[in-house]
Amino acid sequence: LRYGRAAAAAYLSLARGDTARAVAQFRTLPDTICSCTYDRITAAQLFLARGLDHDALREFAGQSPRFASPTEGFWRLERGRAFEAVGQRDSAVADYGFVVQLWQRADPELQPYVNEAKGALARLTAEPRP
Q: Distance between CA atoms of 11 and 8, rounded to whole angstroms?
């Protein structure tokens, strides 16, 4: 219940537009109580939007959705974004490739995400490696 209350407070801050407070609240959510995939994805999106790339990547450290679910595509897309933001090209390519494979025949609502992943793959594989 404590986790739920803390997560709700973070979402409320986010809904109110107080991203600084939401960042602080998402940072304090424990990662050992609940895998809470949606919370991790939301926190990573918030962190990336605020330029906190390494914080975003930490949301995915040592965790993945516990079972195959629709959230895995979003998880891998967001993690790909985080990997790309911190310069981990190969890991980003792997996650973007997973999204393209997973949702290659997805409903139209998911196609923007597939197109984003395809664009990222094209961009990252066309860039010369350092």
A: 5
Please answer whether residues 98 and 79 qualify as being in contact, where contact means their C-beta atoms are separated by less than 8 angstroms. no
Quote the pTM value. Answer: 0.83
What is the CB neighbour count within 10 angstroms for residue 101?
A: 12
pLDDT in tens, 86-114: 999 999 999 999 999 999 999 999 999 99
Three-state SS sequence of 25-72: HHHHCCCCCCCCHHHHHHHHHHHHHCCCHHHHHHCCCCCCCCCCCCHH
Phi-psi domain of 91 (left: phi exceeds 0; alpha: psi -120 through 50; beta: other):
alpha
- Quote the CA–CA distance of 72 and 86 in Å, as a whole number: 21
67: left (phi > 0), else alpha (psi -120 to 50), else beta? Answer: beta
Distance CA 63, CA 37 (A): 9
- Tokens for 115, please give them: 């197109």
